[in-house]
From TrEMBL:
PANTHER family: MODERATE CONDUCTANCE MECHANOSENSITIVE CHANNEL YBIO. Keywords: Cell membrane, Membrane, Transmembrane, Transmembrane helix. Belongs to the MscS (TC 1.A.23) family. GO terms for cellular component: plasma membrane. GO terms for molecular function: mechanosensitive monoatomic ion channel activity. Residues 198-283 form the Mechanosensitive ion channel MscS C-terminal domain. Its main location: membrane. Residues 128-191 form the Mechanosensitive ion channel MscS domain. This is Unannotated protein. It comes from freshwater metagenome. It is found in: Cell membrane. InterPro entries: LSM_dom_sf, MS_channel_1st, MS_channel_C, MscS_beta-dom_sf, MscS_channel_2nd, MscS_channel_C_sf, MscS_channel_TM-2, YbiO_bact.
Amino acid sequence: MQDLANWWPEFWQQWQTPIRILAILLGTLIARWILLASVRRVLNQVENGTNGKLNHPDAKQASQSPIAKARVIQRSRTLASVLSNLITWSLLLFAVGAVLSELGVAVGALVASAGILGAALGFGAQSLVKDLINGLFIIFEDQFGVGDSVDLGEARGVIENVGLRVTQVRDVNGVLWYVRNGEIIRVGNHSQGWSRVILDIPLSYKVNIEKAREVILEAAKELVKDSNFAKRMLGQPEIWGIESITADQVVMRLVQQVGPQDADDVARELRLRVKKKLDAAKITLASDKNSIFVDVPDSAKKPEKAKR
């Protein structure tokens, strides 16, 4: 017993530095494993919750479910990736600093040197840092996601992928645009909350406006009652009145509020039904051809007789 009491102080005095370093490394690995497991658990709960909501009877249509699911899952995975990298690098820097301190290295001087180096690198990579920071805000604030129809200025189309540095947008011609997040100054999102179908219908100036109004509104209400489109509609259609008037035509505006992903489909079907109803009621649309009347003098109408 006396020998053990004498041995331990000598052993600790000789091996305390390696033991502390080993404890720091083990503690860092255990802490990283626990934190990353927590992140993965939260991510799995989000994905499972998304599947449950999308399968709920009150959820949106099944055709929209894959897009909504991809958006939520991609956003969750991106946030999880950012948190995982932050945890890993924070613990790594802590462990390196603690190990160097145990070895007797002046950590303060190294931190100062690293700060100067980091400032130089940050100055040289300003655009990259700007892209990453803006990408984080886009994801955290949920400005847009996969499947959204957006207007980013130069690029307009549907979002296919949202990354920390680059966002991918597919336009109507099928071109895939890679937009740096740092270059996105404004975002117009057509897919958040609800959307609105606006049809401006040009009618002939001589058309009975009240009759045309009733026919157009009847076509819109029939579409609302259609089982294939009823779930996409939000509220009843409205005639906002005469949008513009000229000597040749009267433009009447029809408005229908719809779901965020349904504007294009509803607009196409609504145009078709309005066209059929107007044809059945024998209501003519305005022509894009302008009539030109030329006043011809009487002297020009009667050609002079040829002189003999």
